[in-house]
Write a structure and sequence with these properties.
The complex is a heterodimer.
Chain A lengths: L2 E4 L2 E4 L4 H27 L3 H18 L11 H29 L7 H16 L2 H12 L3 H25 L3 H9 L4 H32 L10 H10 L3 H29 L1
Antiparallel strand pairs in A: 1-2
Chain B lengths: L2 H8 L14 H21 L4 H19 L7 H32 L7 H16 L2 H12 L3 H25 L3 H9 L4 H32 L10 H10 L3 H29 L1
Chain lengths: 270, 273
């Protein structure tokens, strides 16, 4: 225990001198890096705009309250589109992710090379944000809901497949051995010994991803891929803050409900 | 199992089928049929324009070809400056986010503070977690203008919700006997926090800040699309100018960067634990 002599009496200290110094150096180095980065950002910032920011914010809020309620009539259809993007995107991702996960899991993969390919698919899908997928798909498919659905699906495959295959790798081997011992074929082993163990994981992860997808589907519209983001972009560009605040409120409520639904369903299946 | 069910199963050869996932048949078929109905309605509402897709496929092919031959060098300096800016934003925003999260996370833990403070902090967390970074970025761009500062503010706000929530959950689950022990020595509230609470949550917090650094870097490469600085704005410009070779180079750089930080941070986190 680190103890120092202070005025002739022993005093307890948290750390000894060496750790104290190392700690201090670590903090110093971190602070220097952060300050340097901050300096670089400050150089690229137009500070006269920033000085104006409080006034801008006050203006935004003043014009956003109260929300323009009658605009709600035009929001139902984009809201439905947003829900469609999230749900169909999750459904497509589910149908692709399940086989990919079984190919990627160590205990169910047919061949190590197939496993590597499946892992590559997962990593590639996870590394590209859904907004970037949406940007690319809008170029190919044109603006609309379809591009949004595929963007969400492509991004979700990696996320869900990764959690699925980790779930598959964690299963209990005893039922698998028991079913194999009865002379079952490998597809029978899959459906009677492996599937029952992973269905709760798959269901839970899918519904969790659906919840995330609903949030993401609110923004793919900003690059033209359908949903409520299109209205948000248009309202901001025309400075209609009453509409913006209504859209933000609608998103907040939708996300709140979806989070509740997803939590309830996960509670039931797991 | 009842006798009737057993005898019913044995009359014509033994057969067994696994029990259904949802036991109540009304609920089961209700859920199945309403999901099918919903899916049909949803698919019907997606209007697909085959003519536009046919035209798009041509562009898709040139996009795909460009992706096979990314051009890293013609505008190499733009890529480098965008990536570096994304990194600056990530570093500053993670640092600010973690610092603000400490008081907010304390305030959002029910066992630490009185109810009014708890509710205010929870509301802040809920607001930050509900909205996508991109939406917050748009609002900050309107407020402080185009550039990396809007990005820093966005990412710091996003980190606030993520970090405070996890910190609060951690603090709510700490071992209260240690806190009691510190308090019984006559420590003030601040000393109790510093010596009784923080040592218990610190190891996980270090891991989480690294994890959040990862997430912030991903987001920092995207929010540029709406004008909040970083590599995203370069990507958006290149797509609008049909300079697909540059776009593919940028996307590959983003993937490499994300993977590199993910590997580094998971390596560090494994060593810390």
């Amino acid at each position: 225990m680190p103890v120092v002599l202070k005025n002739g009496s022993k005093t307890w200290q948290w750390r000894d001198r060496k750790t104290e110094w190392l700690n201090w150096l670590g903090w110093m180095a971190g602070a220097i890096v952060v300050m340097y980065c901050w300096q670089m950002i400050a150089d690229r910032t137009n500070w006269s705009f920033v000085q104006d920011a409080p006034r801008q914010a006050a203006n935004m809020i003043a014009r956003g309250i109260p929300p323009r309620w009658e605009y709600m009539n035009q929001l139902w259809s984009p809201l439905w589109d947003t829900l469609t993007i999230a749900t169909l995107g999750s459904v497509i991702a589910f149908f692709i992710a399940v086989p990919v996960a079984f190919l990627a899991a160590q205990n169910t993969t047919p061949h190590p090379i197939v496993r590597q390919i499946a892992l590559l698919v997962i990593v590639a899908s996870r590394s590209v944000n859904s907004l970037i997928w949406a940007l690319l798909l809008v170029v190919v498919l044109g603006p609309g809901v379809l591009a949004g659905i595929l963007a969400i699906a492509l991004r979700s495959i990696g996320f869900t497949a990764k959690l699925f295959y980790e779930g598959i790798e964690e299963i209990d081997q005893e039922p698998v051995e028991a079913v194999t011992a009865t002379g079952a074929s490998s597809s029978q082993v899959l459906s009677y010994a492996i599937m029952p163990q992973v269905v709760p994981t798959i269901a839970g992860v899918t519904i969790y991803r659906w919840d995330i997808n609903l949030r993401e589907s609110t923004i793919v519209g900003l690059v033209g891929a359908g949903g409520i983001g299109i209205q948000l972009d248009a309202s901001i560009n025309t400075l209609r803050w009453g509409q913006v605040s209504l859209i933000l409120l609608v998103i907040f409520i939708t996300v709140f409900i979806s989070e509740w639904v997803s939590a309830k369903v996960r509670e039931l299946v797991i | 199992m009842t006798k009737a069910a057993m005898s019913g199963a044995t009359t014509s050869g033994r057969s067994w089928s696994p029990p259904p996932f949802i036991k109540n048949p009304w609920l089961r078929w209700g859920i199945i049929s309403s999901s099918i109905l919903y899916l049909i309605l949803a698919i019907a509402s997606v209007n697909i324009d085959p003519a536009r897709i046919a035209r798009g496929l041509e562009r898709g092919r040139s996009l795909f070809q460009a992706f096979l031959q990314p051009d890293f060098f013609t505008r190499g300096s733009d890529i480098v400056s965008g990536v570096v800016e994304s990194l600056w934003m990530t570093v500053v925003a993670t640092a600010i986010g973690v610092f603000i999260s400490i008081p907010v996370g304390l305030g959002a833990a029910r066992n630490m503070v009185p109810l009014p403070i708890y509710l205010v902090c929870r509301l802040l967390v809920a607001l930050s977690r509900t909205f996508q970074e991109v939406i917050i970025a748009i609002l900050f761009v309107v407020m402080v203008g185009f550039g990396p500062l809007a990005g820093v503010l966005t990412l710091a706000f996003g980190s606030l919700g993520f970090f405070s929530k996890l910190l609060a959950e951690d603090i709510e689950e700490i071992d209260s006997s240690q806190v009691d022990a510190i308090r019984s020595t006559g420590a003030s509230w601040l000393q109790t926090i510093a010596f009784g609470v923080f040592p218990q949550v610190l190891p996980r917090m270090v891991g989480l800040s690294l994890y959040r650094f990862d997430i912030n870097l991903r987001e920092a490469s995207v929010i540029g699309i709406v004008g909040a600085g970083g590599i995203g704005s370069t990507l958006n410009t290149s797509l609008q100018r049909y300079d697909y070779e540059l776009s593919s180079a940028i996307i590959l750089v983003i993937i490499a960067l994300v993977m590199a930080t993910e590997l580094t941070s998971s390596w560090i986190r494994r060593r810390l634990q």
